Amino acid sequence: MSDAARLTIHRYFGLLFRALVLLIALVMMLPLAYLLFRAGGVGWTELLSLLGRTRMLSIMWNSLLLVCGVTILSLALALPFAWLTERTDLPGWRVWTVLAMMPLVIPSYVGGFTLIAMFGPRGVLQELLSPFGVERLPSIYGFTGALCILTLFTYPYIFISVRAALHRFDPSLEEAARSLGFNGLQTFLRVTLPNLRPAITAGGLLVALYTLSDFGAVSLLRFNSFTRAIYVQYLSSFDRNVASLLSLALIVFTIILLLLERHSRGRGRPRYYRSSAGVVAPRKRIELARRKWPALAFCGAVVMAALVLPTGVILYWLLRGLTSGESLAPVWAATLNSFRAGALAAVAAAVLGLPVAYAAVRMGGWLMSFAARAVYLGYGLPGIVIALSLVFFGANFAPWLYQTMWMLVFAYVVRFLPQAMGAMQISLMQMNPRLEEAGRSLGLGNRAVFRRITAPIVRPGVLAGMALVFLTTVKELPATLLLSPTGFSTLATQIWSGTDEAFFARAAAPALILLTMSAFSIFLVLMQEEREVIGG
Amino acid sequence: MAVNDVSLTVDRGEFIALLGPSGCGKTTTLRLIAGFERVDAGTIEIDGALMAGNSVHVQPERRRVGMVFQEYALFPHVSALANIEFGLRRMPPAEKRARTQEILEMTGLAGLEGRMPHELSGGQQQRVALARALAPNPALILLDEPFSNLDAGLRARVRAELGEILHAAKATAIFVTHDREEALSMVDRVAVMLDGSVKQMASPHELYTNPATRSVAEFIGDANFLPGFGQGDTIECELGVLAARKQIRGPVDILLRPENIELLPAQPGLPAARVRHSLFFGHDQLITVQLPTGTHLIARSGPSDAYVSDLPLQLAVRSPVVAYPRKK
């Protein structure tokens, strides 16, 4: 073949590749585009009557209340916990640090399940108290329950960021304040706290975002915030306009939070670290002396509520189920289904994510960076919104896809592709083009370069991304609930229905399996963050 | 680092240096004075008031001790001005403004007060740290290795500025350093700290010419030691009979600073020392010579003469000399 012909092929291939990347990005934007299109079809008069009919304002108020409540309460747990483990001689502070982060492993709906299975009707506590003639317990449904669950399982986001900030914090700043006439408390308020503010804001916004988009806990605990209202609308009236309007409002709220979060991390702002690098005096932990008892009680109570009780409740119902002859067969079937859906989603994410990741890292131009951004859109969208838009889209335009496994996998990919992309982009960035050139100059052909240099370097990132997608897919609830083919039950849906129908023993085994897998996924995320730090 | 047997007395308005190698306990001493660490034994008094010891521990905020940290520890979330005003919160506003203005002018920071710490250069940051410590008019200022974060070119200038500012403020100050030139050139008195205790406290001149111990002599400057025998006012050694600074008897080690050894042309008939090698620096040179008995000495000489290897020389010593009893 002549050189000119080879060049032509090369150019066509490049164009084709760009077109492919763009196509993937457009497909990923489909749900949002459809939602906007639907909501755009609602007229003004209709809009006003809808607002009145659906009690939109009360839903907004509920969501706002929950987001604020969870954020503030999480802060109240995370701040003292982080301070105690990082700055004081709290006995066993290393262990407490790990324990404080572990509730992150528990998905909110599993948390909801444990709360209901403990304190709800026919729960553990009621059974314990029934011999004493206690028939009814104060209801845990509604705001209080949702607030408790979301706080207990999201405060680690703030804990992690505040702990990191405390770790970076230069203790001589506090000493400087002391030598200028401020006592311990004044120093904390005037010097330490202002310097923790960026970390508190970042962690708090993560908690707020999680709370706003959470579906599992609020739905199980029947608190009418956005996500549950959307679900109820979908179930009861199948009124697309109302549901899409609610979804749109939720998206607006999410975008506001995302913008705030971006702003809080913005460049150009002074960085609140020590002004120059160098030797720091080894920090001395503050001696708690007799104050260690209340401190231990506080940490113990948090870990008890967020970790020990939930796992205890799961184990209790698991044993109850096993001894009363609850069949494990549905659990195995559900596990198999979950794994199958997860594996399909992982493979699809790798196949679709790799070209986009490659384009984002290696190719210039606004079109390619737009494509990468479009794919990241799914990350910010609440799961229930993606699920719902696909339900409408499928029912209207692709009935042959609706309620098939493919539709479900598509929803997973839209939601979790960004996670896979993240991992793949990191390893692609490590893949310096000079390495490939070095391979060529050492006499390797194109194919040999790919096989012996590119692939081995990129492989770990792709595998990590796939593992992450697999594990988060298994945990996913709203899309699974809305888009599963009929009769297709997974671990997540089993926990959901078991809790909803108060068959707690049935939900226990899936919950335990999920918890284990969730632990793996958190571990993977932490590992990846480590890599990101190392990779610069 | 453990500290014991530290005895320091600082007069009002005096500027002293705490000099020692890294890890000798000098920063710990500073932190004990500031109140960030607790003493196990001994006492610390400021202006006649007991600050620590005898089961007393006055909190750092009540000691009236200002501190300039090695990393400056400027509060990164507020401006330079707010940093300087930090310790003045109990002052009436008018007085506060006047005091801040005075301090800003004294430290040459006028015009920079609106900047955030990260917008200031290293030298400016250090002046803000000093201004912040000076503003509440503390009884004592402590400076922990104040120049270690500055590059060499900047250091000499900042050193001079800092000395002037402290002098103008009539502040009583202790500063910690491991750099002996820094200590000797800046302060009224130097306390030499080795292995957790203060070995000698004296004026720079006294310290250099009459070190209390052999280890202080070695730490404070280049030192040769020549064996000799004390006979009261004189010491007999290979280089002849030298006058002793003070009475001493028995086997001794004589301290010979390189600049106290004079290199003279060899005289016929007398045993000569020979040049082994020399290091030429421009303004001076260091010449290693070997005495007839084999002992090596390092001498300092001006740049005019050339000392080639094996050149025979006669050595003379500027007396009186300091000597230390030889350890058995």
From TrEMBL, chain A:
<keyword id="KW-0813">Transport</keyword>
<feature type="transmembrane region" description="Helical">
    <location>
        <begin position="57"/>
        <end position="83"/>
    </location>
</feature>
<feature type="transmembrane region" description="Helical">
    <location>
        <begin position="400"/>
        <end position="417"/>
    </location>
</feature>
<dbReference type="GO" id="GO:0055085">
    <property type="term" value="P:transmembrane transport"/>
</dbReference>
<dbReference type="InterPro" id="IPR000515">
    <property type="entry name" value="MetI-like"/>
</dbReference>
<feature type="transmembrane region" description="Helical">
    <location>
        <begin position="339"/>
        <end position="361"/>
    </location>
</feature>
<keyword id="KW-0472">Membrane</keyword>
<feature type="transmembrane region" description="Helical">
    <location>
        <begin position="241"/>
        <end position="260"/>
    </location>
</feature>
<feature type="transmembrane region" description="Helical">
    <location>
        <begin position="199"/>
        <end position="221"/>
    </location>
</feature>
<keyword id="KW-1003">Cell membrane</keyword>
<feature type="transmembrane region" description="Helical">
    <location>
        <begin position="95"/>
        <end position="120"/>
    </location>
</feature>
<feature type="transmembrane region" description="Helical">
    <location>
        <begin position="140"/>
        <end position="160"/>
    </location>
</feature>
<feature type="transmembrane region" description="Helical">
    <location>
        <begin position="461"/>
        <end position="483"/>
    </location>
</feature>
<feature type="transmembrane region" description="Helical">
    <location>
        <begin position="373"/>
        <end position="394"/>
    </location>
</feature>
<protein>
    <submittedName>
        <fullName>Iron ABC transporter permease</fullName>
    </submittedName>
</protein>
<dbReference type="Pfam" id="PF00528">
    <property type="entry name" value="BPD_transp_1"/>
</dbReference>
<keyword id="KW-1133">Transmembrane helix</keyword>
<feature type="domain" description="ABC transmembrane type-1">
    <location>
        <begin position="335"/>
        <end position="525"/>
    </location>
</feature>
<dbReference type="GO" id="GO:0005886">
    <property type="term" value="C:plasma membrane"/>
</dbReference>
<comment type="similarity">
    <text>Belongs to the binding-protein-dependent transport system permease family.</text>
</comment>
<feature type="transmembrane region" description="Helical">
    <location>
        <begin position="503"/>
        <end position="526"/>
    </location>
</feature>
<feature type="transmembrane region" description="Helical">
    <location>
        <begin position="12"/>
        <end position="37"/>
    </location>
</feature>
<dbReference type="InterPro" id="IPR035906">
    <property type="entry name" value="MetI-like_sf"/>
</dbReference>
<keyword id="KW-0997">Cell inner membrane</keyword>
<keyword id="KW-0812">Transmembrane</keyword>
<feature type="domain" description="ABC transmembrane type-1">
    <location>
        <begin position="60"/>
        <end position="261"/>
    </location>
</feature>
<feature type="transmembrane region" description="Helical">
    <location>
        <begin position="293"/>
        <end position="319"/>
    </location>
</feature>
